[in-house]
Amino acid sequence: MVVLEAKKVSKRVGSRTLINNLSFSIKKGQICGFLGPNGAGKTTLIRLFTGLIRPSEGDLAINGISVTDKRTEALMNLGAIVESPIFFPYLTGKKALNNLARLQPQLKSRHREKRVQEVLEMVGLSHAADQKVGTYSLGMKQRLGIAQALLGNPSVIILDEPANGLDPMGMRELRNLIRKLRDELGISFFISSHLLDELQQLCDHLVVIKNGTLVWQGEMESLSGKPLYAFTLTPIEKAAQFIKQHYPIDRIEGNQIYVDIHDDDLPLLNTHLIENDIQILGVEKKQTRLEDAFVEMMSS
């Protein structure tokens, strides 16, 4: 099921073409990264999807509903944080969301307080519901912003630079929250960011634009390559014989074995290697960096 779609969209302002005949789609449950250099048209496209501006040509759709022709109905399926979430610092988290819940046409008054409690729990802020937003950390404010985006029970959420200013712990918490919402609720995400390493860790799909034109779209793995673990082991023959009984081996180079293994299975394999008297000299995750692929696309 396609939840977010651009159909031959163009946007012109005077003599300038900001978006040029752009088409792509995102399916239910995808976490899609949105890349492009400064001035590529990313913010313009997000404003088009959120109904803040209208396209010069083409159309955009959310759950198959035209943003141009049926704006209110289409946007009922969308949650968004455009740039940084802003809340009055003197309001509590609960009060801020209660006020925003009044703007959700599909959320009846008798259900607002319950929905606010639900989204606060989803983003892990129940404990801070009665604290003033001014006391929140940047990471907590970002989670409160996602809670606001969840109020209308959307099928897709657009995030614009959500990790800006976050420390490594805050970035990890944000990644885990996005994955949780995707896995448990089936929500799709469209994430614009300049933090390419973060997108590579989080996204399964990618849309890249340059000068308002689509450059590349597809699965993250087909651009960055499937991640493999390079094990440096001895004795190498015994190690290869043992590993191939349990996991696919991509190749062997010298004393390194490249293994197709999920991150979660890594500790178990390490344990089994040690138990079988195989010495582990090193383990390294090998994957083409998204940054390198992006720079190559922008220079071509």
TrEMBL record:
Transmembrane segments: none
Record-linked CDD domains: ABC_BcrA_bacitracin_resist
SMART domains: AAA (SM00382)
Name of the protein in its database record: ABC-type multidrug transport system, ATPase component
InterPro entries for the chain: AAA+_ATPase, ABC_transporter-like_ATP-bd, ABC_transporter-like_CS, P-loop_NTPase
GO molecular function: ATP binding; ATP hydrolysis activity
Keywords: ATP-binding, Nucleotide-binding, Transport
SUPFAM superfamilies: P-loop containing nucleoside triphosphate hydrolases
